[in-house]
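Before going further, learn to read the protein records used in this course. A complete example follows; check for yourself that the lines match position by position.
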Amino acid sequence: MESNKRGWTTQWAGIAVLALFALLPLVKTSDYQLTVANNVLLWAVFAMSFNMLFGVTGMLSFGQALYFGFGAYSVGLFAYYQGTWWFLPALFLGMAGSGILALLIGPLVLRLTGVYFTMLTLAFAQLGWGIVVKWYDFTNGDDGIQGIMPPAALSNKVVYYYFCLVLVSVSVWFLWRISRSPFGLMLRCIRQNPSRVRFLGRRVKRNQLRIYVISAVFTALAGGLMAGVDNSVHTGMWYWTTSGEVILMSILGGMGQFFGPFVGAAIMILIEDMVGARTEFWSMVIGIVMLTMVILLPKGVVGELVQLKERLFKRSSALGV
């Protein structure tokens, strides 16, 4: 009963947050502010899809930048070589391609567990980064690709913002349904005790592969949409630091909490925006702020709020309120 109540609370909180994002363009906002809001939304999807791997299933992948970069460069390369009308087809081709790539890589990385799994996912991501950097004639190497524009129907900043918001909302709903489904329960059981799940006759590797592919697809969606927000793609999207950022966002918001990564992404993007505009030492300041928050809030912002709510509920129950 308590679990169902908590689920409904989380669901309505998510709807309220997305509704606030929908109202944002109705307030007097600049194109820059819409870009920041889009960054929050897309990094949130990236972080939430990663959380399905680590926070829910217990698989620490340090290679999700591979799929983020794949999605971004799918849009970037098609738009660059074939024209802007390829933007939308390339977005969904990038998602499909990432799913196929994950389906091929997944059985290889899932042969290992723990830190070995983590390092192998990192190795594949760095391999992808190396290919993009060295294949200059096709990818422009470290120069990246500039001038990537959405099709005419989405060229307006507000229209593109709502387009991203709709896809983000659908993604959040889909991931939420997975997390609350029997499949999501199976993933949590795998995180807690994979040996027992295997003993009960369930296929651990198959379920891990399924969520690995699903995570890759939504990560590619975030990357593809980001190409339209920045109007460019660059090799940093493939680099290991991109995977590190999304891990930090998930930890900051609350690993294992469904909306924790969303909150973590918002906090991190907003801090980067505010601090970066005021000092050239922004990376050091952000590092100090993040370290302080992680020490003071070890369960993440959402995790600590949930724990506080549970303590207050137990106290009120004990007092008979």
Summary: The longest helix spans residues 204-230. Residues 149 and 245 are 26 Å apart (CA to CA). The longest strand covers residues 145-146.
